[in-house]
Design goal:
3 helices; alpha+beta
Length: 100
């Protein structure tokens, strides 16, 4: 089984930057408690007046990645924050091959 890395880029509407950040901080705390989660980091980028959040995640395997997506906290976040995004989140799922 290979470790799975996920990188997500979230672009909130300007009026919801603080809302998204607050909800993402809740996601950080809850996601780090998941059994199969190895890492869950939140980063903020601000360029030309646009704020984007980057989420870098690592999971033990694909099953743990799916368990995260199925979790109550993830489902609640998506239901609450969906209208706060300027565009759909960009999510890349990667299988780690050789990572230090």
């Amino acid at each position: 089984m290979s470790v799975i890395a996920v990188h997500a880029i979230i672009t909130p509407k300007p009026e919801h930057v603080n809302d998204v950040q607050a909800e993402m901080l809740n996601m950080v705390r809850a996601s780090r408690q998941e059994e199969g989660n190895l890492r869950y980091d939140l980063l903020r980028e601000e360029k030309d007046g646009t704020v984007r959040f980057h989420v870098q995640e690592r999971y033990r395997d694909r099953e743990a990645t799916q368990a995260h997506r199925d979790s109550a906290h993830y489902q609640a976040y998506r239901a609450k924050a969906g209208d706060w995004f300027a565009s759909a989140p960009e999510v890349t799922v990667l299988e780690e091959i050789d990572v230090a």
